[in-house]
Amino acid sequence: MAHDDTSGTDVAAFSSGADGVSNTSGRAVEPSAASGGLAVITSDGFADPGVPPHRKRVTDLDPKKARTAQRTVYTLFYLSIAGSIFAIAAYMAFPINENDPGSVRLNTVFLGLGITLALMGIGIGAVHWAKSLMHDEEGVDIRHPVRSSDETRARAVEIFHEGNVESGIGRRSLIRNSLIGALVAFPLPAVILFRGLGPQNEIPADLLSHTMWKAGARLTLDPSGLPIKAADVTIGSAFHIIPEGLNDAPDRLEQKAKAAVLLMRVNPSDLNVSAGRENWNYDGIVAYSKICTHVGCPVALFEQQTHHLLCPCHQSTFDVDNECAVIFGPAKRALPQLPITVDGEGYLIAQSDFLEPVGPSFWERS
Question: What ranges does the record give for the region Disordered, renumbered to this chain (predicted)?
Fold first, then answer.
């Protein structure tokens, strides 16, 4: 046992050997006195050293440097606003032409530059503000039980007030206003982008109420466009279907996004058909819109044993036996059914267009 008077620490180190346990002084120790192979250390504790002395920043010592830092921060926020405006202008000035790959590159480059400038301006400005101008005194927060007493709520108000004072957001009006402007302007490019994806000057519900399907249109395989006979659809099989002539349509991608269909065959006795839909299937062959009624993802997974259709995006599940009613997930309505039959040559054809709008159910409908 060695005792160090200067440190206030008693240290006993033990090592195990073949015949038992010995300590570093060479005296024998009974095996039961210590655990073999372990060092036993005890301490009387030591004083809390506290936090190191606070070092003031250059902006704390020199008001001129503080003003320079302030100008840098609000300039970055104004650059962020300029980046957001530039992104919107670039989106309009360089429209995408699907027949011109160069237009895609120009749109992507300039749009990306604008959004990058908008993000970097806010990010770098906020970091520089925190590092150079906000309150820089170290503090110790003693943990205590969380309570909802009047004193706690009053202290919370004080903390918000202190945060306002320490950050300077209340008195540094240029920084505050430029940050607010940057945060308001930053989402605008996203609004413009998403709005550009939707129909222009038209009501979405009207567009989704009509597709390329019509009476007598043959069901064809996607993507080949070859017609399919009822005899080719066996029980348990599923096919991705598009309307006849879709591949030759000038706006085929837009039309396919509405008209894509899943074709399946189950035992006719498994189908629970509601009144008015008795002739919408042909000998157990049913066709349903492939566009999920949640947010429009492609419903592409058919479970042969359960007769369920699964949307891979958010796991909405539809029951084919019960007219594709929703049995799980966020979708709120069944997949629209395409009425089908066969023509004189045995090919599957549509009886009409869908009788309800296809796609996400959040669209307004009359």
Answer: 1-30, 44-63
Alpha carbons 5 and 145: distance in angstroms, whole number: 39
Give the tens place of pLDDT for each residue, 314-347.
999 999 999 999 999 999 899 999 999 999 999 9
Q: Which of 268, 262, 259, 235 is nearest to 318 (CA)?
A: 262
Residue 366 lies in a domain: no
Looking at residue 230, which CATH number applies to its domain? 2.102.10.10
Range of the domain at 193: 58-135+148-197
Indicate the pTM of the whole model. 0.51
The per-residue pLDDT of the chain, averaged, comes to 83
Give residue 70's pLDDT band: very low, low, confident or very high (50, 70, 90). very high
248 with 273, same domain? yes
Average pLDDT over residues 343-361: 92
CB 46 within 8 A of CB 8: yes
Q: What is the 3-state secondary structure (H, E, C) of 71-109?
A: HHHHHHHHHHHHHHHHHHHHHHHCCCCCCCHHHHHHHHH
Predicted local distance difference test score (pLDDT) of residue 25: 46
Which of 292-296, 318-322, 361-365 has the weakest average pLDDT? 361-365
Residues 295 and 345 sit within 8 Å (Cβ to Cβ): no
Is the residue at 364 inside a domain? no
Q: Which of 98, 88, 120 is nearest to 250 (CA)?
A: 98
Kindly state whether residues 290 and 229 are assigned to the same domain: yes
Distance of alpha carbon 16 from alpha carbon 20, whole angstroms: 6
Q: How far apart are CA 86 and CA 93, in angstroms?
A: 10
Domain annotation covers residue 53: no
Place of tokens 């070092």: 55
Contact (Cβ atoms closer than 8 angstroms) between residue 246 and residue 252:
yes
141 assigned to some structural domain: no
Q: What is the pLDDT of residue 40?
A: 53
Residues 123 and 176 in one domain: yes
Nearest alpha carbon to residue 188 among 290, 61, 85: 85
- For residue 23, give both structure tokens: 């300590």
Helices 188-197 and 63-93 sit at what angle, rounded to 10 degrees? 10
Same domain, 192 and 221: no
